[in-house]
Design a protein that fits this description.
CATH topology: Serine Threonine Protein Phosphatase 5, Tetratricopeptide repeat
Radius of gyration: 11 Å
Oligomer: single chain
Keywords: ANK repeat, Repeat
CATH class: Mainly Alpha
CATH superfamily: Ankyrin repeat-containing domain
Number of domains: 1
Protein name: Ankyrin
Largest sheet: none
Order of helices and strands: HHHH
Pfam family, one: Ank_2
Number of helices: 4
Strand content: under 5%
Organism: Apiospora phragmitis
């Protein structure tokens, strides 16, 4: 609903860096897919985990990791406080 009302899908800030990283960390598969469908940058950097792939991997969310990889997530990405 927020995206349909003009929310910026790649807005940066907060603990997780952006909405895609937060959804990836929490294991919200449907939200991850919605964000990607609305143009979320799969390799955006920032936040505690550095990128969505690292956030999902840190919590063992295999399905989200697969989704991110299918959308071009960079396997060798580095960054964040945890990585």
């Amino acid at each position: 609903m927020l995206l349909d009302r003009g929310a910026e899908v790649n807005a940066q800030g907060g603990r997780y860096g952006n909405a895609l990283q937060a959804a990836s960390f929490r294991g919200y598969e449907k939200i991850v897919q919605i964000l990607l469908d609305h143009g979320a940058e799969v390799n955006a950097q920032g936040g505690e985990y550095g990128c969505a792939l690292q956030a999902a991997s840190s919590k063992g969310h295999e399905k989200i990791v697969q989704i991110l990889l299918e959308h071009g997530a960079e396997v060798k990405a580095q960054g964040g406080e945890c990585c």
